Structures are given as C-alpha cells and as structure tokens.
Backbone:
C-alpha cells in the first residue's frame, strides 16, 4: 500500500497539481500538467521526468489515464489519490494546530516553548 511518504517529492507535487487541475469531464493532458507543474516547482519539467512519474502514480492507483485522442492521454485523480491526499492534509492540519504560528511554540506545552 502506498503512503504519502513513499512518494518522491516530484510525485507528491505532481499529484497535488493533478488534484488542483482535476476536471473529470476534460482530463488534463501531460502537456497541461507539465505547464501547471513548472511554476509550482519553480523549474522546467522535462518529458523524461514527467511521464515516468505519471506512470508511477498510475501504478500506485492514485491517478487514472485515459486516451483522449490517438496521441494524447488525459489524467485524473482516483478515489485512492484523493483519499491519500486528504489523509496527509488531515495529519498536516493536526500537527499545525499544535503550534502558535507567531511564536512557533508548542501550544501543548503551555505556550512557553521551553
């Protein structure tokens, strides 16, 4: 079973972009995902990195691929991909709730941070 931490940073970023760009009536092409991913990562993304990572997300059951035309595939998140992201988001929110954002101190320790 795949866990958020078993994905590479690139795969996690790619899954987040796929979730953010999801349109089940018009799945995103690899080129559209590449265009959305580049500003997200702050760097150019080459095809040699994009497609093997899309294939890995598909193999993990987190993303579905469908043929849009003879040359183009479309990608959408699966229920497992959405669930994995939501579980990660819940953990992140739970940890973040323990901290005072201004003082960066644990709230659970009485707030004195010592």
Residues:
């Amino acid at each position: 079973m795949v866990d958020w931490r078993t994905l590479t940073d690139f795969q996690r970023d790619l899954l987040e972009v796929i979730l953010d760009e999801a349109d089940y009536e018009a799945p995103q092409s690899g080129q559209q995902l590449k265009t959305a991913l580049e500003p997200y990562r702050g760097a150019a993304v080459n095809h040699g990195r994009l497609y093997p990572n899309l294939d890995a997300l598909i193999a993990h059951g987190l993303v579905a691929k469908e043929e849009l035309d003879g040359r183009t595939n479309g990608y959408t998140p699966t229920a497992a991909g959405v669930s994995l992201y939501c579980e990660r988001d819940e953990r992140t929110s739970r940890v973040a709730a323990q901290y005072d954002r201004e003082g960066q101190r644990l709230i659970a320790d009485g707030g004195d941070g010592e």
